[in-house]
Specification:
Number of helices: 2
Largest sheet: 4 strands, antiparallel
Helix content: 25-40%
Distance between the termini: 14 Å
Strand content: 35-45%
Structural class: alpha+beta
Order of helices and strands: EHEEHE
Shape: globular
Strand order of the largest sheet: 2-3-1-4
Length: about 80
């Protein structure tokens, strides 16, 4: 199956959702190339970027599940490869 490389940018405003976010990311761990999280204490949020290489439907499902979490916002940027 053809895969695409993408980056999912995540903003976490509700710290209670972090446990659920980590469960989702673990579920899709086979597709994750890497991730980086930065706590921004001044605004009391966390900023996370997740690089993935997966089929389009998998990326959409992952991003959708993340975006449905309370106080968590996600946007995806795709490579042309």
């Amino acid at each position: 199956m053809e895969t695409r490389v993408a980056v999912i940018g995540i903003i976490v405003e509700n710290k209670k959702s972090v446990v659920f976010l980590n469960e989702i990311l673990s579920e899709y761990g086979d597709y994750i190339i890497g991730r980086m999280g930065v706590p921004y204490h001044k605004k009391n949020i966390n900023i996370i970027s997740v690089a993935v290489d997966a089929p389009q439907d998998i990326i959409n499902a992952l991003s959708g599940k993340i975006g449905r979490l309370d106080g968590v916002y996600a946007k995806t940027a795709y490579s042309n490869l």
